[in-house]
Amino acid sequence: RRTIKEKSEAYTNAKADAALKFLPVYDNLERALNQGTEDEAFLKGVEMTLRGFEEALNKMGLERVEAAPGTVFDPEKHNAVMMTEADEEHPEGTIVECFQTGFAVKGKVVRYAMVRVAN
Question: 23, 64, 87, 95: which is deepest, by most CB within 10 A?
């Protein structure tokens, strides 16, 4: 028999696996938002769609991994795909740019944030 803990973990893993299938859509919405446009109605529509998508992911238990510029690099949460020289604005060991948002479920990373780090 499975214990309650095992059942809970299996359910959490299943939710994370299902949500991972939707993350490429999230990435495309984020890219569309960052492209910029003069069409304010289009921009607002993409923003609303992305926020609604984030709410749905949150209801599934996914939370964003913090990876804003200036955040301290953590190999447990971030995947450094590029390095850049440290400077006054970006001290050594901090994130300079986030290329792809990471997500976690109950503190367990299901997708690492892809970042550029000051070295």
Answer: 95
